[in-house]
Amino acid sequence: MRQLGGIDTMFVRGETPSMHMHVSGVLILDISTMRDGDPRQRMRTLVAERLPLLVPFRWRLIETPGGVGAPRWIEDPDFDLDRHIHLSTLPAPGSRRELEHFVATVAGTPLDRDRPLWEMHLVDGLADDSVRGSVAIVTKFHHAFMDGGAGAEIMTSLFDLELHTDTAAPDDHWTPDQVPSKARLLFDAAGTGLHRAGQVPGTILRTATGMSGLVGAMFPSVTGARLGSAAPRTPFNGPLTPDRAVVLAGCSLTDVKRVKAAFKVTVNDVVLAAVTSTLRRELQSLGELGDRPLVAAVPISVRPADIERGFGNHTSAMMVPLPAHVSDPVERLQAIHAFAGHTKQQHQAMGSDLLESWASLVPPWAISIGSRALSSLGLSRFAPPLFNLIVSNVQGPPVVLYLAGAEVTAIYPLGPLMDGCGLNITVISQGDTLHIGLVADPSLVTHPYTLTDGLTDGVGELLDRVDRPRRKTTSRATAEAAS
C-alpha cells in the first residue's frame, strides 16, 4: 500500500458531485503514417504493452473507514484494461464542435472510485478539415496521482520519438495486492495520526518563518495594500454545476515569442496578458468591468530536484493580479510582468513545502465535510473569491512525438474547476503553436468561444505594438505593481 500525501488527499477528499478533481486532455493523431489495422485497436494494444511503465494505471484508491486517515493506493487485484479504454465514434458531421461536446461530457463525468482513477477514449469519425484523417485520444486522470511532472512521466512512457519502433514490450512483474481489512486500515491510520502529531511543532515553526511569504503569495498587493479578499467578484465566480463546456483552440507561439523578446518579459507574462485582454473585452460586454485587478491562480511546480520521477503532487499556485481595468495592452503586459515577479518572490519566501505540511495535518474527514458544505450551501455565491480563474502554461515537448506509429499533431490540456471559480485556461507549447484548452462551467461562462478568440486577438494587439515607438514613462499599472 502507498499512503497519499497531504495535497493528494485534499484532491481526493475535496471532490464533490460538481467539483471533479481530475485533469483531462485531448491528443490529435495523424494516422496516415500508421501501419495497417484499426488505429484505435493498435493504440489499445500499445497501452496494454506499456502498462509496466505506467505505474499508477493499476492503482486503486482505498479509503479508511470514516475518513479518519489518509487514503491508500493498492495494486488493484480486479484490474481490467477494458474498463478504462473505450472506443468511440463522433456523431456526424464529426466537426471540432462535436469533438468539444464529447470532451465536455467526459470532463463533466466523475471517475469511478471502484477502479483505478483514469480512463481513455479512442475517438474516430473526425471529419473537420483541420482534423480529417485523424484520431483523437481523450484522457482523464485523477489529480491525486498526477501533477505536471507526473504527466510528463506518463508521456515519456507512452510516446515514441520515432515513427515506427519495434522495441520489445517491457517485462511485467506486477503483483496485485489484497484489499486490506478495515481493522488494518484503522490500525495504520492510528499510526499515521501519531506521526502527524509529531509534525505539528515543525510545521508551526515553518509557518512562523514563512508567514509573510504565505500572505504575500495568497493575497498579492496593489499600490502597497493587500487586495484583502484578493479578487473582485465577476460573473465567472459562483457555485459550480456538474456541467462543463470545452473549447480547443490555438495561437502562434512565434508571435508570442516576438512579443516576449520585444518587451523583455516571459512567455508566461504574454499568456497572462492575452488572458487579461480577452477577459477585459468579455467583462466590458457584460457591463461588469470594475476598477480592480482580477486575480489568476497560476499553478507552479515545487517538485524537488532529487524527485525527477514518480507520481503524486508537488505543486502549488501563485496568485497573480491581472489589471483588466487598464486600457493600454502594453501597460497591462508590463504590470503583469512586475506582479508575477513580485508574487514569485513571495512564494519562494513562503517555502515550497509549507502547503504540503499543513495539508498533511488536516484530517481527511474535515476536508470532505468542509468541501461538501461549501458546495451544497452555495457559500461561494456570497464569499469573496480568492481568485477569478485558473491559468496554466505548460512547457510542451520540444520534439515530434508518435503514438503507435501516428504523429501527435496537437495536445490540448484541460484542468479542473474549483468551487467558486468556473473558468480554467491551460496552454501548452508544441512546435510553433500554443494549444489552448479551455474548461468552463456553462452556468458561469456563457461565451467560451469568445474568450478563446480573444486570446489570439490579445496576442495580436501586442504584436501590433512591437514595432511602434514606446513611451518611456512608467505606466500607472506598472507603478502599482512595483509599490
Instruction: Output the strand order for the largest sheet.
Output: 5-6-7-2-15-14
Our estimate of the beta-strand percent is 15-25%
* Unreliably modeled segments: 223-229, 471-480
Largest sheet: 6 strands, mixed
- Compute the number of helices: 12
> Mean pLDDT, as a whole number?
84
Task: Please write the CATH class name of the domain at 209-355 and 377-391 and 431-482.
Answer: Alpha Beta
Overall SS class: alpha+beta
What is the CATH-assigned architecture of the domain at 209-355 and 377-391 and 431-482?
Answer: 2-Layer Sandwich
Shape: globular
Q: What is the first-to-last residue Cα distance? A: 50 Å
Helix content: 25-40%
Task: Write down the Rg.
Answer: 23 Å
Order of helices and strands: EHEHEEEHEEHHEEEHHEEHHHEEEEEHH
Number of strands: 17
CATH topology of the domain at 209-355 and 377-391 and 431-482: the name is Chloramphenicol Acetyltransferase
How does this structure look, described?
The chain has 483 residues and is an alpha+beta fold. It has a domain at 209-355 and 377-391 and 431-482: Chloramphenicol Acetyltransferase (2-Layer Sandwich), CATH 3.30.559. The protein is 36% helix and 21% strand. It has twelve helices and 17 strands. A six-stranded mixed β-sheet has the order 5-6-7-2-15-14, sandwiched between helices. A six-stranded mixed β-sheet has the order 10-17-16-13-11-12. A hairpin with a 2-residue loop joins strand 16 (423-430) and strand 17 (433-440). Mean pLDDT is 84; it is low at 223-229 and 471-480.
